[in-house]
Design brief:
DnaG_primase, zinc-finger, DNA Primase, Chain A, alpha+beta, 5 strands
Amino acid sequence: MIPHSFLQDLLNRVDIVDVVGRYVQLKKGGANFMGLCPFHNEKSPSFTVSPTKQFYHCFGCGAHGTAIGFLMEHAGLTFPEAVQELAQSVGLTVPHEPSMRGGGGG
């Protein structure tokens, strides 16, 4: 299992604008960045990326999430693969906690 504290630290270090910008052409629009949604076919941009909230949202189809979720949805990565890719991009090593298996006994 990947520790929750590591995920928070990772998301704090990663810039979602850079991550999404690898796949979507983004243009600055006020405080946010706008682009054509990669999750549905559209002609006018309804896809926004917030650098302050580190979150993406499409007002057309409702897609939304963090950098991890974007890589999972757009690049087809699993959760661990998306975490690993982001961690490598910022020079972190993904720690793993042993998973809790079994009934615990007593």
